[in-house]
Amino acid sequence: MKSINKIAATLGLISLISCSDKLAPIRKDAVKPTIVTQKLPQDTDDPAIWINPNGVSKSLIIGTDKDTDGGLYAFDLNGKIIAKSEVLKRPNNVDIAYGFVIDGKKIDIAVTTERESNTIRIFSLPDLKPIDNGGIAVFDGELERDPMGIALYTRTSDNVIFAIVGRKSGPSGTYLWQYRLTDGGNGIAKANVVRKFGQYSGKKEIEAIAVDNELGVLYYCDEQFGIRKYKADPALNDNTELALFGKGEFKADNEGIAIYKTTSTTGYILVSNQQANTFMVYLREGANGDANSYPLLAEIPTSTIECDGADVTSINLGGQYKNGLFVAMSNGMTFHYYAWDLMQQRIDQAKNK
Questions:
Q1: What is the pTM of this model?
Q2: For residue 13, is it within any domain?
Q3: 216-232 pLDDT, tens per residue?
Q4: What average pLDDT does the structure give for the chain?
Q5: For the segment 76-101, what is each residue's pLDDT rounded down to a tens digit?
Q6: Start and end of every BPP domain (predicted)?
Q7: Residue 73: which CATH number?
Q8: Is the pLDDT of residue 113 over 90?
Q9: Which domain holds residue 255?
Q10: How many domains, in total, are found in the chain?
Q11: How many CA atoms lie within 13 A of 77 on its CB side?
C-alpha cells in the first residue's frame, strides 16, 4: 500500500508540473533554501516551529503529512526527521502553543485538524504523544465540517489557549469556530466552542489562519479573494472585520500565513502567493500609522513549489539562524528552511526601490 501511495504521489507531482498554465516555474532570482528537509511519505502541507525551552538549537519543525495514513512529523534544524506521531487520518494544518496546563503541569502542545474524522488532535511536545483520547469533534451539528485550517491563540492576560478552526466550506459569518482548550482530567484535554465568526466569499476555502498573540488579532486567507483580519479574544464579543487586504494581488490562491516579529508590535506578515511561488509581504503594524492598512510591501520569489503553509520565528536559533528562521511547505514532500536574513535582504531591496 505504501509503495502505491508513493507512486500516486509521484504521479500527482508530475501532473502538477506538467500543467504549465497552473504552475509557475521557479524564478531564476528565487531565494534558495538554507536547508531542504527529508521527504515525507505522502504529502507535506503545513509547518509550525517549536522553540525548545531547554536549548534553542534543539528546536523542532512540526509538519503535517496530509494523507489517509499520514501524521505529524518532527524535524530538527538540519531537516532530519526525528519523531512521528501515531497515524492520523489526513491531518491538514498544525499550530503550536506553550504552557498548556494539564494535570497541574505546564506542557507545550501541537494541535492539528484531522479531516477524515472531523476532529482536532492534541499532542504533547516534543514527544508527539496524544493527550486527546483519540480526538475532539469540531463543527458538531453542521452539514459542512471537513476541518482544515487551525491556529492557536494564547490570551496574554491569563494564558488561556484557544483553537480557531476553519473548514473546507461553510456559511459566511460563522465559517470559523473558536474553541477553548482545557484540562478534562486524567491527562486528557478537552475543547468547548466559545465563538462562531468569519466572513467568507464562497470562492474557494479558508485554510490558512494565523494569530498574533501580542496584538490580539488573527488573519485568515479567504482563498482567491483576500486576507481578513479579526480580533482574537472571544471575551470581547466583537466579530467586526478589521481589515480585508491583498485583493487582486495574488495569481490565484492566497495561502499560508506567517508573522515575523521585530518587536512586540512591529514586523512583517508573509502570505504565500501559491501559484506564483512567491511570498507577499505586508507590515505587521500596518502602514502610515493605520494598524488596519496593508499595502503590499514586497513580493519575494522562493524555491518552494505551490506552498500551502509557512511559519517563521525571529528568535536567535544560532548558526545561520541568528535572526530567525522561515519555513515553507513545498511540493515534492518537503519543507524548505530559509535563514531569515535571506528574506530580510529582499524586503530591504523592495523598500529601497
A1: 0.92
A2: no
A3: 999 999 999 999 999 99
A4: 93
A5: 999 999 999 999 999 999 999 999 99
A6: 16-347
A7: 2.120.10.30
A8: yes
A9: 36-351
A10: 1
A11: 20
